[in-house]
Amino acid sequence: MVERRSPKPEVGGSSPSAPARLKEDMKNPVKFLQEVKQEAFKVTWPTGKETLQGTLMVAAMAIIASIFFLLLDQFFQFVLGLILKIGF
Q1: What is the value of pTM for the model shown?
Q2: CB 3.0 to 4.6 Å from 11: which of 6, 51, 53, 70, for a disulfide?
Q3: How far is CA 28 from CA 8, 23, 33, 68, 76, in A?
Q4: Does any domain span residue 69?
């Protein structure tokens, strides 16, 4: 069997013992929750200002997209109206 290695030594590969570790975590939910808490503290959470900026950007893009599709819909409605008037 050929051993596969990552081009970056600091990147770990999959371990055959990973399923066994999962079973250990399932047997000890308190340890699992402690590890989850530790990982949550490692996360870089956005600041309030960054969250507000992101929210405003999403809202602005939603408004711009809705106006664009409203105008596009009105244009197609006008063109379709002309085509139907010509047909009759």
Answers
A1: 0.53
A2: 6
A3: 33, 9, 9, 54, 61
A4: yes
Place of tokens 């002309």: 82
46 within 8 A of 54, measured Cβ to Cβ: yes
Is residue 32 a part of any domain in this protein?
yes
- In this model, does residue 30 exceed pLDDT 60? yes
Residue 74 counted as domain residue: yes
Alpha-carbon distance values, 25 to 12, 19, 33, 40, 52 (Å): 20, 10, 9, 17, 37
Residue 6 belongs to some domain of the structure: no
When divided into structural domains, the chain yields a total of 2
Helix segments in 1-88, DSSP class H: 18-27, 29-42, 48-87
